[in-house]
């Protein structure tokens, strides 16, 4: 248990973007996270894998932190929470996962924004900040993303952040209990706006 506790407290990069701050989740974030997820349940569930019955419990959150810490330690994923820099309110979360090195130098992006903060540009700002980290500190060549065709809000966020739609994957992921087709998006390092990259400050307190 001591090892697990240490991993749950693991730190990582803090990204200061345009109107958002991204940092690794901590045990002290549990109440804010559970409250925002519960408040946004009906808004989020149509676009996410089915939630487990204990999904919002403290025990499940601690398990998440353990997984997140291992992924960051191994360099295979960077799961970060999204905060408002003015009042430190939790706005959502974003993850760069499935990072492949060697001949790929690629990662996959996913995110969610709580219902109260939807439509305010938070998602776009968070995606841009994560891309700056992906193409800067992490040195990736390409970032991929996917969304359900009817998730028009996510589609717009990806395009505003610089992604291009590249195709359709049939029955790509099981969303809310059913296999769903997804639109596939990608963005290359050389396509990412250098002005955005330079506006994101990255620090690592670990």
Automatic annotation (TrEMBL):
Domain of life (superkingdom): Bacteria
This enzyme's EC code(s): 2.-.-.-
Alphabetized GO MF terms: transferase activity
Name of the protein described by the UniProt record: GNAT family protein
Organism: Brevundimonas olei
InterPro entries found in the cross-reference section: Acyl_CoA_acyltransferase, GNAT_dom, Ribosomal_N-acetyltransferase
Top-level EC class as recorded in UniProt: transferase
All copies of domain N-acetyltransferase, residue ranges: 20-190
Keyword Transferase (UniProt): yes
Keywords: Transferase
Alphabetized Pfam families for the sequence: Acetyltransf_3
């Amino acid at each position: 248990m001591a090892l697990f506790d240490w991993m749950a407290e693991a730190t990582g990069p803090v990204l200061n973007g345009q109107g958002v701050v991204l940092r690794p989740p901590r045990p002290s974030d549990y109440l804010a996270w559970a409250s925002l997820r519960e408040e946004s349940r009906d808004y989020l569930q149509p676009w996410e894998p089915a939630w487990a019955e204990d999904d919002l419990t403290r025990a499940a959150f601690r398990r998440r932190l353990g997984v997140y810490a291992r992924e960051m330690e191994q360099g295979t994923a960077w799961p970060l929470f999204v905060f408002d820099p003015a009042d430190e309110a939790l706005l959502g979360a974003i993850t760069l996962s499935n990072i492949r090195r060697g001949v790929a130098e690629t990662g996959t992006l996913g995110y969610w924004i709580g219902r109260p903060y939807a439509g305010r540009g938070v998602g776009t700002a968070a995606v841009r900040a994560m891309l700056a980290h992906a193409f800067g500190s992490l040195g990736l060549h390409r970032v991929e993303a996917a969304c359900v065709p009817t998730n028009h809000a996510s589609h717009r966020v990806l395009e505003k952040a610089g992604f291009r739609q590249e195709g359709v994957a049939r029955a790509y992921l099981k969303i809310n209990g059913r296999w769903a087709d997804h639109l596939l998006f990608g963005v290359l390092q050389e396509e990412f706006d250098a002005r955005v990259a330079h506006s994101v400050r990255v620090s690592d307190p670990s």
